[in-house]
Amino acid sequence: AVVTLDPATTIPVSSTVRTVAGRGARISAHTNSAGVIEVKGTIGARAGERSYQLVVEDPTAFSAGAFRKALQARGIAIDGSTTFAATPASAVKLTGLESPSIGQMLDVMNGESINHYAELLFRDAGRKAAPNSVGSVESASSLLQQFMTAKVGAAPGAVFAADGSGLSVLDHITPRALVQLLSYANHAPWSEAFHSSLPVAGQSELLRHRMRATPAQGNLHAKTGTTNSVISLGGYVTAKDGEMLAFAFIYNGVDRWNAKSTIDAMGATL
Are the CB atoms for 84 and 60 separated by under 8 Å? Predict the structure, then answer.
């Protein structure tokens, strides 16, 4: 069987996939400690082409390799190997690609709860706090601790981030600290962009089917959080008297269905 990467890149691939009779396919892929993508399994002779998604262990090497392959595919000869270092002062910029704004990325990240965006933005935020200017969970977590205590006013240790996506079982935050953060965000220079990025109850993204036909519909806007043992919701709602309220509901346990309906009822009550 033939195994290729899309887009083509310079990351090595080792395949032991065999072709067998039939239409089925049983294929697994992972990146080993040497950086080689190992693909194993079988695929039926009548299965046709199959595609699978694989988490990239080294995005920098993957992107540089894909760029190199793309240039070569267009007949551009490249000398030497690919190295990662600071841009030489003598380098000449040929072209560039503008990044989306933070606000645009925030819209996508919060709207559809894209963990990959959250992880990368978290690490990127920690670059300036790192002595080697390399973004990492450790540098970002340290910066977050300083921000939460010095700027937000949260108690020391009220929040700990073992990753940027919130998926680690080591992550923890108190509801009070989360409300303090939401209060700070409401008065920050970036408040408008943050508010507009949050899904709206009964109307948009991950809240479009929740709290419909209640006072929360079109009013409450918040970010969801869900794992196998946690369900949460944090954001804002405008009360009947016009006051904006910040709230944070966090449930730890296995009865997530009842917890979710209770959270929705509390949102409508607010």
Answer: yes
Burial of 136 (0-12, 13-18, 19+ CB in 10 A): middle
127 within 8 A of 135, measured Cβ to Cβ: yes
Task: Look at residue 85 in the predicted model and tell me its pLDDT.
Answer: 82
- Mean pLDDT (the chain) is 93
With 0-12 / 13-18 / 19 or more C-beta atoms within 10 angstroms meaning exposed / middle / buried, residue 170 is exposed
Other Cβ atoms less than 10 A from the Cβ of 223: the count is: 23
The angle, 0 to 180 degrees and rounded to 10, between the axes of the packed helices 137-147 and 115-125 is 80
Q: Are β-strands 172-173 and 37-44 bridged in parallel, bridged antiparallel, or unpaired? A: unpaired
Tokens representing 213?
A: 């036909």
The yes-or-no verdict on residue 55 having pLDDT over 90 is: no
Q: What is the pTM of this model?
A: 0.72
9 by Cβ neighbours in 10 Å (0-12 / 13-18 / 19+) ranks as buried
